[in-house]
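Exam prep: given the inputs below (a chain plus heme C), describe the expected output before reading on.
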Amino acid sequence: MNSGGRGLGRATVLMIVAALVAVGSVGASAQESEGDTADAALLQAGFDTYTTQCAGCHQPGGTGIAGTFPPLNGNPAVQDTAYLIQTIRNGKQGALVVDGVDYDGVMPAFSTLSADQIEGLVAYVQGGFVVPAAPGGDNAAALPVATGALPDLAGMAIVAAFALAAAVGVLVLSPRIISTLDRLDVPWLDAWLRSAIIVVYFIVATVAVPSIVLQSETVSRLDRSVQDVLGVGLWTGGLAVGLIGLWYTHRERRI
Ligand code: HEC
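Solution:
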């Protein structure tokens, strides 16, 4: 019974687990770039809004037309976010000097733009009118599709890879963990595995589970005294189950 897990060579098993974990990490790093993609989507949205709403006057790239429409690119006034948003929402008129050039025109109010559209506009205008190249091509229309599909796939790949790695690990190691022991001659791996399981169990049962439960939304809405009883109950229960488990597995010569 003790040698049940050794049909597959230890090296082979370690290689399989390592390969699966590697797949998972690749997926994880794919997900890390999601933040950049979100920024890119925001700038892209800002570019789109700017092009349809503002470029007719302020010109593509925010260069403006001297004496008629002030430049926005390189104009320090646009770095004042409150002023920029207020100008977009309410429009502007009256004398104005930008870069030593006088303007005295009328900019209409853009009161129908959504908060998201304005957020994109602010990012694009303050960021110097730059749109990062869309990953996998510069086709602007393809971007939303790509950002929607990729993270989900990457996330599923990670979960699948780690679940598979865990399953293979459990399958191969379980005979080492549950078999009865000759206590005078315990293989090092068996001893470490059993010790690790005991330590992890006590951490999870007496620290992690009570804190997760107490922080959960449903429980944190309960009465304070109910929360206390629940916390103490969970902690005592986890501890008791662990101690009974230790006593039982020891009696069965499994630890
Ligand atoms: C119909 C033409 C027109 C459109 C469209 C337009 N603007 Fe303007 N904008 C102007 C004019 C004219 C001024 C200068 C107003 C003045 O002289 O007081 C101005 C001024 C500004 C200023 C103030 C600059 C400064 O130095 O204080 C900002 C910021 C600005 N526009 C942003 C935008 C944004 C963002 C859009 C798109 C949502 C936009 N504008 C659309 C005509 C326009």
